[in-house]
Amino acid sequence: MNYKPEGCIFDSISNQKYISSPEGLSEAIKKGIILEAKAVLCTNSHDLIIDLPCGKGIISREEGAIGITEGTTRDIALISRVNKYVCFKVKSIRQEKNGDITAFLSRKAAQEECIEEYISKITPGDIIDARTTHFEKFGSFVDIGCGIPSLLPIDSMSVSRISYPSDRFKTGQMIKVIVKANENNKIFLTHKELLGTWGENANCFKAGETVPGIVRSIEEYGIFVELAPNLAGLAEPKDYVSVGQSVSVYIKAILPDKMKVKLIIVDVCSEKTVPSEINYFIQSGHIDHWRYSTENSPKNIITDF
Predict the structure, then answer these.
(1) How many CB atoms lie within 10 A of CB 204?
(2) How far apart are the first and last CA of the chain?
(3) Residue 274 to residues 162, 171, 193, 278: CA-CA distances in angstroms?
(4) What domains sit in the chain, N to C, each tagged with a CATH number?
(5) What is the pLDDT of residues 80-128, one digit of tens each?
(6) Under DSSP, is residue 239 helix (H, G, I), strand (E, B) or coil?
(7) How far is residue 259's CA from residue 265's CA, in Å, rounded to a whole number?
(8) Which residue in 7, 27, 6 sits closest to 17, CA to CA?
(9) What is the mean pLDDT of residues 275-303?
(10) Which of these, 210, 206, 257, 261, lies nearest to 232 by C-alpha position?
(11) CB 221 within 8 A of CB 185
């Protein structure tokens, strides 16, 4: 079973086969298969109504998520699923007098299986898939499987500092993350270690080039411009520049021993930038140790898992 973030399996041939007929739903009951479909309504009692090709699905409030009954999960976790795909296991099917099919579903059961078969087994250093769900000043909440949430802190998103998670990600974006700790199935995450070391990023640029960048910080002594999520350089002071602006910069020098990139801002291109596609230097597997710093640098920026 593939315990992916919600929305990953809806279009699969297997999922479509099971949700498209009463026979398919019955087979899913027997096999205990996790399926997906779109939630189209949250009732005033916070039951989720699911759009199935062969009828209507109902996820009662109590079956909507782990912790709802106990009060450890707020009902916003259900309300926010409207117009989005949700995972579930089929509990029973009923044919109404008019011939319509009503399926009774449990998202909670899918999450419980995900925890038992997947979440409980991941270890620090494992690289996993996640989907961003919503942002707060301090970080991005992500779905790490079957709608189970975890927090990616803002200072773990990249080496280059950002003001808000939307500077780096879009809502609903699929990303890679690394498990930093697993404490009783509470998963702690990091992301920056997948974005390359200082040297790997610096090797993508050459002195004398003019390249795009994003203003991340303005100090009295200069302006920090992000060239890549894990690489920023210092530009000379310039008037009428603000944080978040897209700029073009001339690379004066790249100094590996000092881990510095010297820049000159050539032009201001726009007032606002949108997150660019992420370039992962590591895509999958497991890592135990990561060193960002260059070999001869006095700085020692490392992560041990």
Answers:
(1) 12
(2) 26
(3) 13, 12, 22, 12
(4) 13-117 (2.40.50.140), 120-195 (2.40.50.140), 198-270 (2.40.50.140)
(5) 999 999 999 999 999 999 989 999 999 999 999 999 999 999 999 999 9
(6) coil
(7) 19
(8) 27
(9) 92
(10) 261
(11) no
